[in-house]
């Protein structure tokens, strides 16, 4: 008895799946916009050549001035959501810097507790009416650590 296997095309079987989303840095965006401007401003043709959506190309073309002033390795032009209480975060950052300079270990729980205690001080309550009900969640903490380029440091033995 002879068994005949699946006769699919070998090339189709060996192909890797193409990534669905891709993040373009500023240098690549500017190269695509330059190609677009030098080839009769054909949006659909340029988008198809670089496997992007025409809307992406139009957006990049409209933001060309901002792209030219941004560092070439940057992928996102928008830095993220700004801090709701920047004065509190500045004071908290100064406190963390002092503690770290003294060699004290600072955990995420300690940072959150210090933020809560700072928010209960009379000067913050007077200037920021909604701070009493603010929840210093883990998402807030992640955003704070990212905005100030902090990381939780652990001892390595």
TrEMBL record:
PROSITE patterns: HTH_CENPB. Gene3D superfamilies: Homeodomain-like (1.10.10.60). Keywords: DNA-binding. InterPro entries: Brinker_DNA-bd, Homeodomain-like_sf, HTH_CenpB_DNA-bd_dom, Trp_repressor/repl_initiator. SUPFAM superfamilies: Homeodomain-like (SSF46689), TrpR-like (SSF48295). It comes from the Eukaryota. Pfam families: BrkDBD (PF09607), HTH_Tnp_Tc5 (PF03221). One of its GO terms (molecular function) is sequence-specific DNA binding. SMART domains: CENPB (SM00674). Residues 76-154 form the HTH CENPB-type domain. This is HTH CENPB-type domain-containing protein. It comes from Rhizophagus clarus.
